[in-house]
Amino acid sequence: MEMPVGLTARGAGSRERLLRAAAAELASASQLEVASVARRAGVSAGLPYRYFGTRSGLLIAVVEDFYTRLGEAAVFRRYEAPTWRERERERIHAWVSFLYHEPLAPIILGVPMGDGEVAAATAGSLRLAIEIGGRNIAQGQRDGELSGDRDPELLAAAVLGGVHRAVVLALSRDYRPPLDALVHELWAFVAGAVGLTNLDEGSSPKAPGDGIAHKRRS
Known about the structure:
mainly alpha
């Protein structure tokens, strides 16, 4: 992560320590109290306000850091496979894998948090992901791999929302579906949503009993 403008190396380190403490506090308590974050980070109660201004500012920083890490891990990465199909299957796997191993995923992607400022920051992060996803889908349409009669940006919004809601549901279950099984089902959803041509090409359908539904505990 780049050093924030105007901060010394020591100041950047303190800010990063507070950010990590805030993420851990939110993951464990599902809420964010500045005093608790300061105690967890081992600093004075006033130091978080120096770097983040308000509780909302601290929460915005946590949310933006979450989406930055998600982007770097999966969404905005460059994939080298030769076809759109192969690249996007890899992206879905990396995307779901990040969310499966990220303690903040069910909290940030679940019930909306904070005030209007936090909601606006979250919407901004999602908007950027949708814009990039829309350009990516449009490229697949130009390459002839995707049906060209659908709005790329609307499809990107639907895919982003659908994947996130599905992962939150999976994480909320007593029995968490295996990562590869969830990726398999989500890829089928994404491929159908964006109008991937030759939908069955290169896929390996699972036998009855291999999917998520058949592995739920009664």
